[in-house]
């Protein structure tokens, strides 16, 4: 296997260092305690140092002798649309109610595919909304109102 | 015979109408997600976990277990028919299984997989019933120091078995442990890393982590380059293998079952390793070595038996020690806890009906799977034609509804987004998501036992090496770490995984 500088390695190492470092900084704000009575900060500090240390090792290794992995394209449209759909669901399910929140989420999600035709998207979204309502609200008695207070009825 | 009494109790529980029904639902769903590429048992169990809250505990566990081993079964169908492993452990099955399908022997390949899986499932269920009680008795003597060392060992072994970079797998475990510290501290009640949000006091829900990492991230991977699935074989005929083929699959099935039952106990992808190892073994012992890769039925029967046996025995660490060996087992821990049962050595004595009922249900599930897979194969073939454009919106929508219904907390839904994106990025960088989930579930156990051991022993950190069982476990941990890092052994391990690619 050919080994050389690897962008994915450096990126992965960077993510680990960043998250590990953030937790280390955060855990210093809590009481560390003694070995006999470890405070709330001690264990996250240990784990955070481990994550950051391993991340640093991956980063350095990635600069000199990284794994050769194809990073590949990022489907930006899918990322944006799916994030929007999920956030929309979380934000509106209480206010709009189960049916509208599900329908919009499903419709948005179908748009993540670059191949979907508008009519198909609407049909899929409608079908999924009906199926989800039948399964979760009718079948499993989930206690979410079908139509929420924001709609005014 | 104590074992027979216990099994009788188990069957009387498992044969209750609602338990058989949900066992059927479980294996049916499991087969479906195993057949469909792009959604695995981890995401499915995670999504369905919330809806099992209202069930009886034993019923819920029977159904969730059914999804897990059903998926191992279903994965082989896709591997054989369209050369796409529906589940990671079915990757080897595709090698010879798909070749057989191209030669018009898809029926024989499917039958070999189904018969092998059934035999393996039966034997491994018995192994589980025999091995679990003595192990649980040993585990009852474990103190916090032993548990700490055991959890550590489990985490390290899980990466020694995984494929890919050891360093990254270690980092993923540590990251999982770290994320598991979010929420209130168990001893002092101090909220940690909650950013002042009351919604985070209970910690991050592991369902959100699993759905994000295994559901959303996987969908994003699949949407990178969309292509239509290659033509599916339309009709499967001649299911029953010929006399010659029947003779040829006996040995591989038995060897695969033994290998799988042994390797399944190991944490991490024991079932994946089992199927790869079984294939390598069959290739070595076979007199028709040159046939492998171009449609040898041994190459289907062996690995399929191995991964199904491993799927059953991977319940042993969960039921005796409370340690999950696989991300799905990690979710089962959650299922136990939701029903007020702490998974571990006490389950067998405190909840004998649940323990033996679950084991007996696995055998019933295996019978149902044979019925589902062989006569109904046409149904699964047709299901493979569902376009991905319909499938992935369904997964996203059900994931959102499922996680929201956990606690009617919108933060659980936002957490899927976060873990989906994080998981996607890390997977693209060559990091496997499974170690992170194991670390996330086991992290709190690690912390709790570490702190408790130190309190009991007055802050003396040498307790972990002076207590004999703990010392042995730690020595094994170090050995596993050395094995994972040493270049020579690493290379051989890569050979096991890549020889057949």
Task: Write a structural description.
The complex is a heterodimer of chains A (153) and B (501). With 153 residues, chain A is mainly alpha-helical. Helices cover 66% and strands 0% of the residues of chain A. Chain A folds into two domains: 7-65; 76-151, no CATH class. Chain A has helices at 7-27, 42-65, 76-96, 98-110, 118-139. The termini of chain A are far apart. Chain B is mainly alpha-helical and 501 residues long. Chain B has one domain (2-498). Chain B has 23 helices and two strands. Chain B has a two-stranded antiparallel sheet with strand order 1-2. The longest helix of chain B is centred in the first third of the chain and has 35 residues, at 106-140. Chain B is globular. Classes of the chains: A mainly alpha (153), B mainly alpha (501). At the A-B interface, helix 1, helix 2, helix 3, helix 4 and helix 5 of A face helix 8, helix 9, helix 18, helix 19 and helix 20 of B.
Q: What composes the largest sheet of chain A?
A: none
- Name the helix and strand elements of chain A from N-terminus to C-terminus, one letter apiece: HHHHH
Which blocks of ≥5 consecutive residues of chain B have pLDDT under 50?
none
Largest interface (C-beta under 8 Å): A-B, 73 and 65 residues
Number of domains of chain B: 1
Give the tally of structural domains of chain A: 2
What fraction of the residues of chain B are assigned to beta strands by DSSP? under 5%
Q: Can you count the helices of chain A?
A: 5
**Rg of chain A, Cα atoms, Å:** 23 Å
Query: How many runs of DSSP E, i.e. beta strands of chain A?
Result: 0
Helicity range of chain B: over 70%
């Amino acid at each position: 296997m050919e080994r050389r500088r690897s962008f994915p390695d450096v990126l992965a190492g960077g993510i680990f260092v960043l998250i590990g470092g953030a937790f280390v900084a955060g855990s210093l704000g809590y009481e560390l305690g003694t070995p006999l009575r470890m405070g709330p900060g001690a264990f996250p500090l240990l784990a955070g140092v481990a994550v950051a240390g391993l991340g640093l090792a991956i980063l350095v290794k990635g600069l000199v002798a990284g794994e050769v992995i194809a990073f590949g394209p990022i489907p930006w449209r899918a990322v944006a649309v799916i994030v929007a759909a999920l956030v929309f669901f979380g934000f509106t399910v209480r206010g709009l109610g189960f049916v509208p929140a599900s329908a919009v989420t499903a419709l948005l999600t179908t748009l993540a595919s670059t191949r979907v035709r508008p009519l198909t998207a609407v049909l899929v979204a409608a079908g999924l909304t009906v199926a989800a309502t039948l399964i979760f609200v009718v079948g499993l008695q989930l206690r979410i109102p079908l139509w929420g207070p924001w709609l005014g009825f | 015979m104590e074992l027979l009494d216990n099994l009788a109790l188990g069957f009387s529980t498992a044969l209750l109408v609602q338990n058989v029904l949900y066992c059927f639902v479980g294996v049916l769903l499991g087969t479906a997600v195993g057949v469909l590429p792009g959604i695995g048992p981890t995401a499915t169990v995670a999504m369905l976990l919330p809806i099992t809250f209202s069930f009886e505990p034993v019923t819920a566990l029977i159904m969730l277990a059914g999804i897990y081993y059903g998926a191992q079964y279903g994965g082989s169908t896709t591997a054989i028919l369209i050369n796409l492993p529906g589940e990671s452990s079915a990757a080897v099955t595709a090698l010879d299984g798909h070749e057989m399908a191209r030669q018009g022997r898809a029926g024989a390949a499917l039958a070999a997989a189904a018969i092998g899986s059934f035999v393996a499932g039966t034997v491994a269920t018995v192994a589980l019933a025999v091995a679990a009680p003595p192990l649980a008795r040993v585990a009852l003597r474990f103190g916090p120091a032993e548990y700490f060392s055991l959890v550590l060992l489990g985490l390290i072994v899980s990466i020694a078995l995984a494929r890919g970079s050891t360093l990254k797998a270690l980092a993923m475990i540590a990251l999982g442990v770290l994320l598991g510290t979010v929420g209130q501290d168990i001893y002092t009640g101090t909220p940690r890393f909650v950013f002042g949000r009351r919604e985070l006091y209970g910690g991050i829900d592991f369902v959100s982590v699993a759905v994000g990492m295994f559901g959303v991230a996987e969908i994003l991977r699949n949407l990178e380059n969309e292509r239509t699935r290659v033509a599916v074989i339309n009709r499967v005929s001649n299911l029953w293998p010929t006399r010659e083929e029947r003779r040829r699959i006996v040995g591989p099935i038995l060897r695969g079952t033994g290998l799988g039952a042994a390797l399944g106990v190991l944490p991490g992808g024991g079932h994946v390793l089992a199927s790869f190892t079984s294939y390598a073994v069959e290739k070595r012992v076979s007199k028709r070595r040159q046939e492998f890769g171009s449609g040898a039925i041994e190459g289907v029967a062996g690995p399929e038996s191995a991964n199904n046996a491993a799927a059953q025995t991977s319940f042993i660490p969960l039921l005796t020690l409370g340690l999950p060996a696989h991300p799905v087992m990690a979710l089962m821990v959650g299922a136990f806890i939701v029903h007020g049962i702490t998974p571990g050595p006490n389950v067998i004595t405190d909840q004998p009906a649940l323990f033996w009922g679950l084991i007996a249900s696995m055998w019933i599930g295996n019978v149902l799977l044979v019925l589902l897979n062989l006569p109904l194969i046409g149904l699964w073939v047709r299901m493979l034609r569902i376009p991905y454009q319909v499938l992935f919106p369904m997964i996203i929508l059900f994931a959102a509804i499922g996680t929201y219904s956990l606690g009617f907390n919108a933060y659980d839904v936002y957490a899927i987004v976060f873990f989906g994106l994080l998981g996607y990025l890390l997977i693209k960088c060559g990091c496997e998501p499974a170690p992170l989930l194991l670390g996330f579930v086991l992290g709190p156990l690690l912390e709790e036992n570490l702190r408790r051991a130190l309190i009991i022993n007055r802050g003396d950190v040498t307790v972990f090496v002076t207590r004999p069982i703990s010392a042995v476990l730690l020595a094994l941990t170090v050995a596993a770490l050395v094995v994972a890092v040493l270049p020579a052994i690493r290379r051989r391990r890569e050979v096991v995984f890549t020889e057949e690619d």
